[in-house]
Design a protein that fits this description.
By secondary structure, the protein is α+β, with helices and mostly antiparallel strands. Helix content is about 55%, strand content about 15%. The protein has two domains: about 100 residues, PH-domain like, CATH 2.30.29; about 210 residues, Rhomboid-like (Rhomboid-like fold), CATH 1.20.1540. Helix 9 packs across helix 10, helix 10 runs antiparallel to helix 11 and helix 10 runs parallel beside helix 12.
């Protein structure tokens, strides 16, 4: 008897389950006695999508698991294993499908999966929420729109004042530059001559809506995990130290700079995360350490390279924040081992 499930395939979305067959959009999964059939649409350049089917042997399917409505598994291959994933309509359908799929796991996957469970148990125990990240997001976004609202009341302020970077009038560009200085940008001539508080205030200012959006997305992506690892109080210290180090590196490196943005502090969070994972007895399992370092290194390389390529990017602040975050991370890191290690107790039950 064949059972059918309506699914949605994804392609090109880092946060969603992918598939190697280039299926996108609505599709179907058919479960048979010996085979699993995936049916979906393959998108083609300058042509209409084509319907296609992929037949997988049940004996080749291993490492099945779910995340909410997302289902993932591996298909054993001659040269390499393939990761396959898709989304079902509801969690009841997920449970019914999982009951029909093979339960076999490879040794490497079983170890990694168990360590992921242990890791999440530990950070759930110590820091189940991230109030500081939400506060930082609200402050940065709120200050940006408050500055825009103030500029709107000045003659010459236009709708382009909200966006910035080519969307504003010449008058508004001047207003924006002066306003950033008035609100606390990291201006070398002022910061190093009696106004050191600008090292902090500049971390909450942004030059354009695009600048703000990129930084807040990165802060949300990286900051949630870092706050849960360090705890909210230590996270505040890490963020502040990294941000100030980034601002200080900026004014010391450049003879004249008017720098703003949270990116130095964000790079510091990455540095702090690296430092945390390198500490002995941190409580972060080995497979999680490898996964984190593998995802963070490309982020650093890409953003630093882009910073050197784009002339308006303050890479001195990025490098200073990264270095400051590394040192602060070594000092502020704690162990996330649970007392009596409840996660180990659960695995023995």
């Amino acid at each position: 008897m064949t059972e059918h499930f309506d699914v949605r395939f994804h392609a090109g979305h880092a946060s969603l389950p992918a598939n190697p067959y280039r299926f996108q959009g609505k599709g179907q999964v058919a479960v048979e006695a010996d085979f699993l059939r995936l049916r979906g649409s393959v998108h083609r350049s300058f042509r209409l999508p084509a319907r296609a089917e992929q037949r997988l042997r049940m004996v080749d399917i291993v490492n099945v698991y779910s995340e909410g409505r997302h289902v993932h598994f591996h298909v054993l291959g001659v040269r390499e294993n393939q990761a396959v994933g898709f989304t079902l309509r509801d969690e009841d359908a997920v449970r019914r499908l999982l009951a029909l799929l093979p339960k076999r796991q490879t040794d490497a996957f079983a170890i990694a999966f168990a360590e992921q469970e242990t890791f999440h148990d530990r950070i759930d125990y110590w820091s189940p929420s991230t109030p500081v990240i939400r506060t930082l997001l609200a402050l940065n976004v709120g200050i940006y729109f408050l500055m825009w609202f103030v500029r709107r009341g000045v003659p010459g302020g236009t709708m382009g004042a909200l966006v910035g970077w080519g969307m504003n009038s010449p008058v508004d560009a001047i207003l924006r530059s002066h306003q950033l200085v008035q609100w606390g940008s990291n201006l070398t001539s002022l910061t190093l001559h009696g106004q050191p508080w600008r090292l902090v205030t500049s971390m909450f200012l942004h030059g354009s809506l695009l600048h703000l959006a990129f930084n807040m997305f990165a802060l949300w992506q990286v900051g949630q995990l870092v706050e849960r690892l360090f705890g909210s109080a230590r996270f505040i210290g890490l963020y502040a130290i990294a941000g100030v180090c980034g601002s200080l590196a900026s004014v010391l490196w450049h003879h004249s700079v008017n720098s703003v943005g949270a990116s130095g502090a964000i790079f510091g969070l990455v540095g702090g995360l690296f430092a945390f994972t390198r500490r002995a007895h941190s409580g972060v399992p080995p497979t999680v350490v490898t996964e984190l370092q593998g995802s963070l290194l490309p982020f650093l390389v890409f953003n630093l390279a882009a910073g050197f390529a784009y002339p308006h990017t303050d890479n001195a602040a990025h490098i200073g924040g990264l270095a400051g975050g590394w040192v602060a991370g070594l000092v502020l890191a704690r162990s996330i081992h649970v007392p009596n290690d409840r996660s180990n107790d659960r695995s023995k039950a």
